[in-house]
From TrEMBL:
Residues 164-346 form the ABC transmembrane type-1 domain. Belongs to the binding-protein-dependent transport system permease family. Residues 1-41 are annotated as: Disordered. GO terms for biological process: transmembrane transport. It is found in: Cell membrane. It is a multi-pass membrane protein. This is Phosphonate transport system permease protein. The chain crosses the membrane at residues 60-80, 100-121, 164-188, 208-238, 300-319, 325-345. GO terms for cellular component: plasma membrane. Pfam families: BPD_transp_1. Keywords: Cell membrane, Membrane, Transmembrane, Transmembrane helix, Transport.
Amino acid sequence: MSTDDGRGDNETEGTGAKPTVDAKNTPASDGGVRNDQASDVPTRIREQFENIKQTRRRRAVGWVALAGFLAFTTVQAFAATELLDPDARLGTFVDSLSEFFPITFYFDVIPFLDFTQYISFMRHENLLYDPEIGGLLFQWPPSTADIYAFFFTELGIFQIFGEAGITLAMGFVGTMVGFPFALVFGTLGSERVTPFPFNFIFRGTMSFIRAIPAIIWTLIFIPFLGLGPAAAATAIAFDTIGNLGRLFVDELEEIEDGPIEAMRTTGASKPQIVFFGMLSQVRTAFIAWTLYIFEINVRIAVTVGVLGAGGLGFIVTSQQNLLQFTNMMATLISIFILIISVELFSQRLRSRLRADDIEMSLWELITGFPRRMAESALK
């Protein structure tokens, strides 16, 4: 007994009817596509090409609009800073250079920069060397009593460098005092150590410290410690807590989980995991960041010295007030020598922390600088 489905199949076979198919999707006998489907390909390509051209036009219009906005904003900024004021001394800039760079004519013909005026002021104001303190150390024959007085009575390791030594000491004290607090706040501020939202207490404290510049911190501490290096060093220490602590937090967020999980499986306590599983991974980075912050703190010490905190910054502002621009330039040269010396020392220490770097002595680092600059320029 046949069913309807069977009857339907027989009828289909008997009549020779074929199921309808979509002509557009039917492949041709030679493996290609039909003409009507092939005709759609150029249309789609043209549409895509038009879309690409429209996108490029919109981007071009956007860049032009951005350039116009920046140009308009720049003009507004120049007007706000009074650089467009016709009374500005830009026209006398070249004439003013002679006040900073004294020129001496040899044989009344050849102009030379008179460095003797700079050196004379540096020696007179003890910008880079204090002969009274240095005389205790550099003498012949050496005196045991004077050497003992230099290290333990006068405490002259920094004072031997004169005003530059005071600036260096402010940056060093700020780094040393701020480092342990930055380490604690940076470690507890990491979500890997302290769960959210409790870690935000330490993050918020560091953000608050960073929001206030070091020069403002100096003004805050002047009523408590007086106008001098003590207030400046304390302000730099506070600034170090905010800046260095934030760098420590970022380093802890990028550590690997493998050593931490391994210590947890052994039953280690939370302090053991933090010290041996986390801080051990970032020890080298922490030292490198501390040296970098020390470089910045020396620059900050120059800045806060302008307020009267002492050091080279105070000499700069005092000579500027006296309109002694040649002496001011001599102080700026002393600042440059101090900053470069600190950077070379810091770079030397950081290079020893990186095992893949070729070790160079400090002398090789200084004397080989022109050669390395030439090699970099030729690359």
